Amino acid sequence: MLIRAFALFLLALAFAPAHAQKAATLTVYTHPSFAAEWGPGPAVKEAFEQTCNCQVNYVVLDSGGDILQRLRLEGKSTQADVVLGLDTATMETTRQTGLLANHETDLSALNLPINWQDPVFVPYDWGYFAFVYDTEQLPNPPKSLEALIAAPDDLKIIIQDPRTSTPGLGLLLWMRYVYGDQAAEKWAQLNGKILTTTKSWSDGYFSLFMNGEAPMILSYSTSPAYHMAVDKTDRYQAAQFEEGHYLQVEVAALVDSSDQKKLGREFLDFMLSADFQRHIPLKNVMYPATDLGDELPSVFDKLIQPEEALYFDPKTVTDNRRQWMNEWLDAMTR
What pTM value is reported for the model? Predict the structure, then answer.
C-alpha cells in the first residue's frame, strides 16, 4: 500500500502544471535607491509576490541613465522584463530604442501635477527638485534661483553631474527652463559657488552635506520629510524659489522582448495600488503617484509647495539634451 501511494504521488508530480513546480521570475532593472534595504524595493517585492505565483528579481544599476544604456547594449536579448527608475528626462530616449511595449494599465488613479496619458510609461512617484539647506549653517537661504546665483561666492553648494545623476540633469533643465538662451551665462555665474559636483546624489548628500561640508545641496523638496519623520529633526529644509521648481516623474515600462509580458503588466498595474504606493513617501522619499489619503505621512503637509511646476515635454528634452549639456560643460570649464 505504501509503495502504491508513493507511486501515485510521483505520478501526480509528473502531471502537475509547470507553474506549480517552479514559480515564474520577473526581472526588474532598477537603481540602488529603490532596491536598497532602506528603499521601497524589498517591501514592494514581498507585497507583489503575495499576489502572484512568481519571484521578483532586482538587477541593480547605478542610475536611470545606466538602465537605459544597459537596455541599449543588450537589445532584444536583455534579461529585463520591466525597467523601473527612468524619468521624464530619459523616457523619450528610451522609447526611441523600440525595445518597450505598451503597458495597457488603467491610469485613472494617477494624481500628478500634469496630465498623463502615455501608453508606454507608468508613473510610480513624482517630486520637485530643490536645494536643501542646513538651517544651523544657513538660517536665511536664498529665496530664488536668481538670488542663489547672485549670492557671494562664500555661499557654497553641492550639485550633481547631469551626465550621471538624475537631480544633476534636473538642475540642467531647471536652469534652461528659467533662463533659456542665457542659461550658459548663468551657469558661469553660479560656478564660483559650487563646492563640488558629485557623480551621484547619494555621494553628495550622505558623504558631504550631512557631514557639514556645505550648507546647501541640490536634492528634492521632499527630502526634509525623511529627516522630520525618521530622524525627528527639522534641521534640514528645502528652500522655496520664486521662479518655481522643476518637476520629475519617475516611471517604469514593460520590455517588449520579455517572455513574462502578462506578469510584467500585472506588476505595472500593481504599482498603482496602495500596497505599492504606501512605500513611496518615506522609503523613496517622493510623492506617491496616487492619492493615499490619510496614509500619506503628516510630515508631507510641512513641505514647501512650489507655486509653479516647471516641466519640459520629454521629446523636447531628448531633442535638446546634447546641446544643453555642451553649454553646461563649456560654462563649467571657463
Answer: 0.90
Hunting for cell 525595445 — which residue is that? Answer: 99
Cell of 178: 528659467
Rounded Cα distance, 56 and 48, in Å: 8
Bridge partners for 129 per DSSP: 220
Report the distance separating Cα 201 and Cα 195, nearest Å. Answer: 14
**For each of the chain's 334 residues, which pLDDT tens digit applies?**
444 444 444 445 444 454 445 789 999 999 988 999 999 999 999 999 999 989 999 999 988 888 999 999 999 999 999 999 999 999 999 999 999 999 999 999 999 999 999 999 999 999 999 999 999 999 999 999 999 999 999 999 999 999 888 899 999 999 999 999 999 999 999 999 999 999 888 889 999 999 999 999 999 999 999 999 999 999 999 999 999 999 999 999 999 999 999 999 999 999 999 999 999 999 999 999 999 999 999 999 999 999 889 999 999 999 999 999 999 999 988 7
Q: How far is residue 68's CA from residue 61's CA, in Å, rounded to a whole number?
A: 10
The rounded radius of gyration (Å) of the Cα atoms in the chain is 22
Q: How far apart are CA 105 and CA 29, in angstroms?
A: 19
Q: Which of 205, 312, 249 is nearest to 107 (CA)?
A: 249
Handedness of CA 140, 146, 149, 150 (dihedral sign): negative
Please report the DSSP string for 14-78 in residue order.
HTS-HHHHS-EEEEEEE-HHHHSTTSSHHHHHHHHHTTSSEEEEEEE-SSHHHHHHHHHHHGGG-
Q: Give the separation between CA 193 and CA 199, rounded to whole angstroms.
A: 18
Q: Are strands 122-134 and 245-255 parallel, antiparallel or unpaired?
A: antiparallel
SS3 content of the chain, % helix, strand, coil (to 5): 45, 20, 35
